[in-house]
Design a protein that fits this description.
Distance between the termini: 32 Å
Strand order of the largest sheet: 2-3-4-5
Number of strands: 30
Strand content: 25-35%
Oligomer: single chain
Helix content: under 10%
Number of helices: 1
Largest sheet: 4 strands, antiparallel
Length: 372
């Protein structure tokens, strides 16, 4: 009898496994979409006039939303891999995107992202770290690299040259680039491993902005759309600094909570220069200040999200681009894009964004079973 009961148990187990849908069984590592869909989003770009039009650079290419982020469409022909996207706010149908690889390529669209063309010819081998477009009529494009400084194009991304006069040593390692909205023509800020630099002549020369700023890596930059003289800089490990005179002088914001020192993405509200958000990739948090950084609060961002970029729409909605899960990091947050009106409640807006995740890195849940 014991032997009969053992055989019956084995038969029942085999029958249960056989009745599982074949899509849920895997003897070998395989890839499958898991939801809610998201993926890594590395940059966001907002149309200055069409308040519903947003672009995002994601794992599988550039995605476009025409309904304020409620849904997204992957744009065929755009560069994949999670590079960066930027638009020429003077001619907002013109978009540029750069691939993230060590041999980068720059792509251009003249019709709002519907069609893309690879245009760059002589980009050196160096993975891009930052990307910015000075709006027309200048239409200068700036590409930050890690070790080669800043590359510049004045012909729509076709040819490139070094624009490093005044940048030497550690200043050739670029972390962030910023073209202040409504700022003086030819003005660009560059956050480097050697501090903060500025050009006022369209990249012909750079000078360090040092009054009040420690000489350390500047990981994030943001300017107020309503007051271009109000600037914020995130200094890796040293907190956030603010300038109210266009960058001539700087003062540190409040140092608490302690995780604010890890902030590596910034966004300023389009109508309030004193309302600023700071995101932390390694701290997995987003902080909010409504008094120019004198006080900070932690927003209700879901736990485990690693923020890659922050951006405000012209309507005042804040968007966060997050990183997809990795095998060597805990949790299964799908990444993608989240949105909030006030930092009190975040909503995922990932419809149309997809991400492929290795099944072995996905925990067992009620909707996804893996047997290996």
């Amino acid at each position: 009898m014991p032997s009969l009961r053992l055989h019956l148990c084995r038969f029942s187990l085999l029958l249960a496994v056989a009745l599982l849908p074949m899509s849920r069984l895997s003897a070998q590592p395989s890839w499958t979409p898991v939801g809610p869909f998201g993926g890594t989003v590395t940059s966001l770009a907002f149309h200055p006039n069409d308040l519903q039009l947003i672009y995002a650079s994601a794992d599988q290419g550039i995605a476009r939303s025409t309904d304020g982020g409620n849904s997204w469409q992957l744009l065929p022909g755009s560069p994949a891999g999670g590079g960066r996207v930027a638009l020429d706010t003077g001619r907002p149908k013109v978009l540029y995107a750069v691939s993230p690889f060590s041999q980068p390529r720059v792509f251009r669209s003249a019709d709002g992202g519907s069609h893309w063309t690879a245009v760059s010819r002589n980009l050196p081998a160096s993975a891009p770290t930052a990307f910015a477009v000075e709006p027309s009529p200048a239409s200068r494009i700036y590409l930050g690299t890690f070790g080669r400084g800043i590359l510049q194009s004045t012909d729509g991304g076709v040819t490139w040259r070094g624009a490093n006069q005044g940048l030497t040593g550690l200043a050739l390692f670029i972390h962030s680039l910023l073209v202040p909205p409504r700022g003086p023509a030819g003005t660009v800020l560059a956050g480097t491993r050697d501090g903060l630099y500025r050009t006022v002549d369209g990249g012909a020369s750079w000078s360090r902005l040092g009054q009040g700023l420690p000489v350390t890596a500047v990981s994030a930059l943001a300017a107020s759309p309503s007051d271009p003289r109000t600037l914020y800089a995130g200094l890796g490990g040293s907190g956030i600094y603010r300038s109210v005179d266009g960058g001539a002088t700087w003062t540190p914001t409040a140092a608490s909570p302690a995780e604010i020192s890890l902030a590596d993405s910034l966004a300023v509200h389009p109508r309030s220069p004193r309302t600023v958000y700071a995101g932390s990739f390694f701290g997995s948090k987003v902080f909010k200040s409504t008094d120019g950084g004198a006080h900070w609060t932690v927003t209700a961002l879901p736990s485990g999200i690693r923020v890659r970029t922050l951006g405000f729409s012209p309507t005042g909605l804040l968007f966060a681009g997050a990183a997809a899960p990795q095998q060597d990091l805990p949790g299964i947050d799908p990444g993608g894009i989240l949105r909030t009106a006030d930092g009190g409640r975040w909503t995922r807006v990932n419809q149309g964004l997809t991400n492929l995740t290795d099944r072995k890195s996905t925990r067992l849940n009620s909707s996804h079973i893996t047997i290996s």
